[in-house]
Write a structure and sequence with these properties.
Blueprint lengths: L1 E6 L5 E6 L5 H5 L20 E4 L1 H4 L7 H8 L8 E3 L12 E5 L4
Parallel strand pairs: 1-5
Antiparallel strand pairs: 1-2, 3-4, 3-5
Length: about 100
Amino acid sequence: MADLIVVDRDGVEHKVEGKVGVSVMETLRELDWGVAAICGGMCSCATCHIYVDDAWLGKLPAPQPDEKELLQELSGYQPNSRLSCQVQLEESVSGLRVSIAPDE
């Protein structure tokens, strides 16, 4: 297991246990206040949009071009935007802090 620190859309911080080897999206979509993840992790809908805490950005692989392109089309895009379906939960990122982006 790997811990996630998740700030929901109401600004409430939660500590969540996630399963190593799956995407962050898979953990977040199981929560009542998590992400919709409509496309199921296919990097095609952006309903799993999150903001990664700046302290963690350099510890994650850079977004692939298709993810970056999709994110840049969002009105809520920020330099720390990611699609949670594209971020793998590994022991090395236990403690990762993310905020769920507003619905678009």
